[in-house]
Structure prediction request, 142 residues.
Amino acid sequence: MTVQLSAVVCVMAILGMTCGLHAQDTTKSIWDGVYSSAQADRGKELFLDNCAKCHQNTLEGMDVIPPLKGSHFMSDWASQSVAELVSRVHTTMPMDDPGKLSTKSATDVVAYLLQQNDSPAGKTELPADPGIQGQILIDMAK
Prediction:
């Protein structure tokens, strides 16, 4: 009985390690081409219509409005997930009409922000699914 219990515990430990390794492998970075160029183009249009009045067409911000491009922006979001950024855009922007952008629209805007911060485009669109977005890490340039 003790041998069987030890074997079961051993198998469970091995499966746990394998699952943990698999979970780590599913984490992506914004440098892995997680959005498409077409999606960033849609995001640009949404940005210009909804965000540029405060963040400027150049994404440089003004006065107390933070920039959305460059090392300041990237360091502010470093180690957070794309889901967190999409959620921020969706729930708090535009400042004069929070929640105006749907999750899909906010995802497109984030694709544009990633593009403007030199993250490469890929072949597939960034899904509007927070579960998938939560597996994509915003990190400093490779």
About this structure: The longest strand covers residues 136-138. The radius of gyration is 19 Å.
